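Quick one: structure tokens for this chain, please?
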Amino acid sequence: MSAETAETTSVLAANQGLYNGFLAAGLLWALGWYGVTSGRAVLTFFLGCVVAAGVFGGLTASKRILVAQALPGAVALLVLWAG
């Protein structure tokens, strides 16, 4: 990536980082405050957001996002509800 491209996309990257930070904070909050069993609804919401963001990114930016983001979120949802 050129320096010019990096500069013009820095705001987008910061927005993406902030968004991912909020998702991580929500998941940690749900686990810490409620635990796995009591926080299942909140965890489901935030993991659903992770999957939705991964699918959107996979369709609009790169197919690799499906594997890197959507798949782990979907697996976490399955583990959450299988337990």
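The longest helix spans residues 3-38.
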